Structure formats: structure tokens, C-alpha cells
Amino acid sequence: MENQNVDKPNLDGLPATNALDTIGDLVDLACDTDNLDLVEHALELAHQLEACGLRDEHRTLLDYFRANAWACRYQRRYRERDRLWDFEQPEIQQQILLLRRAAQGPGFAAIEPTRQCQILTNLGNQFDTVGRFVDARACWSSALAIDPKFWMARANRGGGLMFYASALYDAGHEGVFALRAHDDLAEAAQTHGSLDDRGLREVFEQRAEQIAQRYDLDAIRKSYEPMAWPFGQGQTEQVYRRWCLKHTLFLNPLNDVDPAPIAAQDILSLPSFVLPAGEPPIVTGMFNELKQLFASARWLLWEAMHSEEMHFSDRGVLLFNTLDYPSYGLSVEKAKTAFRLGYSIFDKIAYFLNFYLGLRVAERQISFRTIWREKEGGPLRVPIAKSENWPLRGLYWLSKDLFEKDVKGTTEPDARALAELRNHLEHKYVKVHMTSVPAGGSLFHDNLAYRITRSDLETKTLRLLQLARSALVYLSLAMHQEERQRAKRRNGLSAPIPLDVWRDEWKR
What pTM value is reported for the model? Predict the structure, then answer.
């Protein structure tokens, strides 16, 4: 539809609340009429309003309306050209950044619950579009934790879980995901009654029925017993495993649908794959290391967060009080080490991709942020851009959460802080404080250190490990998709070679 001549409002003399309503209404009108001229005007008004200074909750709403404006831009470009498998989606990148800033900002708690749900649901939708289906599910579930009857989150989670199911290599897991997807869609059909578009009930019911026709849901429901699994051999192990389940830290897709004992084991592995005759299973060894790194970092963080006494190794270590409430001890170093180990996983994933996809990047040039392109600012490498691999695209988009040089290329508002903390931990000086960081200009202000509270260090490390866990899921499922595509191009026969499991009692 061509742009229509519509009166363009201004914000002259309007208080912030009315100005926000004006911008929101303008974005809705622009989307309904497919008028990009109005979209641009709404974004300009948003820029003007922001420059005037806003309360936290108003800034949150402004970012939400801006994200909706970028969604209008995306809808127009998607219609004009088939962009389904484009790895680069600049409009979606802006939406993710704005919606994350809204969801993570101090004003989020002050806005009404419905708006909170809309922000989280839209963020989940964008994550799902670019292949970050693990992170999408978390967003939709967060919205439903605020309002269990918020049908948009319920329906989108159902659809997203079905896409997730189609990416899995384990048939048993696929069936569980299909069951959960069906239940979400069926419930959404019953809770959307306030909608103007009554046809959505039929859409949700049809999608649920399609799943029911493809899978024997009654058999899956009867055989699936998520609680009938061992949960550890002692109290400490059980507490630890419950903590991992709560924070979705098990390398197990089922942890994305059930925080239950069945998911409390790291059974994620590589899918079946084919190698030339005589070539060793190098990627299996690489994935073993990645899993062990993650599991060890996860345990170190748990120990750091649950330490209540001084460790005997700290006894007699002479330190001086710098009078700025520093925090020292083995548990602090465990948190630092967990962060460093977690961050190292990403570059090791890049090393894996370089070998498996045959990218031929020089070893000294491999990193998780640079593996994707021939050169900085250049196009994506051809094997990646033409892969039509949804989990691989999710892995690429996750790389945008890690800041290096180009802040414009990130989708995570706190990416710079994560990268700065990693750089200081590896090469410089980090001072951890007990409760608060002394203000600049005070007598005890340490201007050489990267200063952070212990709780903030633990929070950032937990978030980093959640990202690493998502990345490992995407890596495994991206390889599964790649093996599917290679099988279609392959001629000749292949012989199976099973690998034995490394027993727990061998781990020392």
C-alpha cells in the first residue's frame, strides 16, 4: 500500500503521558495503514521526547513503542522481498535491543502487567524468528508467570515449542515438546475470548489438532513420568540439582519444558554424523570438552553462591583491609573462574564451527564474534549465509550478545559490561566489594580496578552460563540440521560405528 496523506501530530505542550499515547497511537495507525512515512515520523517524535528527559517507566514504554515501529518496517520489507533465510535482519535487531532494554530497565516493574506481558511476548517472538528458540521460550514463560491467561504468550509458546521439537534429534524429547505445544495451543484457544478477531480460536484449535494427528499424545502423556527419576545421592547434590533446574542450567532440552528430575542430567550430545573412512570423531572430543567446561563452571558458581564459611585454604593468607569493603576468599575466586570458563566456551564453539563447517579461518583469528564473516563489516561467510539452518542462525544471533569492538552490532544492552569484566578478569584487575561499590571521588575509590559487588558478579556469571547453555543447545541442533542436509547430497553407503560412554567412575 502506498503512503497516504495523513495529518502528522506533534508533541507541542503535551505532558509525557499524553505524548507517549500520541506516539503509540501513531505507530498503530502506521502499521494498520502500512504507511512508512508515519513510521518515520513516530520514530522522530520518540527521539524528541527522549531528549526531553523521561521517568523510568515512560522510557520503558517509549522503547516498546519504538520496537513496534521497527516491526512495521520489518513487515514492509518482508513483503517486498523473500527474506526468510537472511541471517541479517536489521529491523529485528533493533526490536530485540529495544525490547530487551524495556524488559531489563528500572521502569519495567512500574508499568502495568499487560504491558509487561506484551514486551516479553514480543521479545520472545523476535528471538524465535532468528532461531534463538531457547531464549524465546524463556520470554514467553516469563510473560505467563506474570499473567497465566495472557493468550498471546501461551499461543506463541505453543507454536515455538513445536518448532523447537522439529529441530530435536531425540524422538522421545520431540514427543514431549509436541505434547507441551499442543496443550499450550489448546489452552490459548480457550483463553483468548476478549479478542476482536474470533478467528484466532479456530487457528489455535487447528494447530493443536494437527499436532494431535501427527503424534499419539495419549501415549506420550501416559508414558512420560518426569518425576520418576533419581534426583541425586545426597542432600547437597539434590539442592544443587534443584538450583540448576530452576535456572535452566542443565544441558538437556527437557529443562526448557520441565524443571523436573527427568531433566536433571546433562544428556545433550551431538547427533549421529557421518565421517570419511578413517577419519577420527574429532568433533565428539571437542563437544566433550565443551560440556565438561560448562558443568565445572556451573558447579563453581553454585559453590561460590552457597559458601557460608571460610575455606581452610584461605587460612593464613595475609591480606590488608583497603577500607572499601572488599570481598576476598576462595568462593570469590570460584565465581571469577566460573565467569572466565563460561566465557571461554564461546570461542571454543567458534573453533568447533571452523573445523566442522570447513571455514578455514586461521586459528589466531577465530573468535565467537568474528567466525561468521570474512572480515569485519563484510558479508557473512558463504557456508553460513546459504545454510538455511535455523539453530545455526540462532547461534549467530546469540553472538550479538557478546560485545567486542562494534557496539552497534549487539542486541544485549549489558554486552559491553560483560566484555569489560571478562577483559579485566583475564588481563587486568577486578576488585569485588561486599555490598556496594564506593562512589567516584571518595577517599577509597580505586580508579584502577574494575569494581563490582559480589552479588552483581554472581548475577552476571549466572546470566553468562545461561547464554553458554543456550549456545551449546544451538550448536548440537545446528549440527543435526547440517547432517540432515548433507545426507540429501550424499551418495553411497555408510557404516555405523557406536561410541562407548565414558563412565562416571572414570572421572577424576
Answer: 0.91
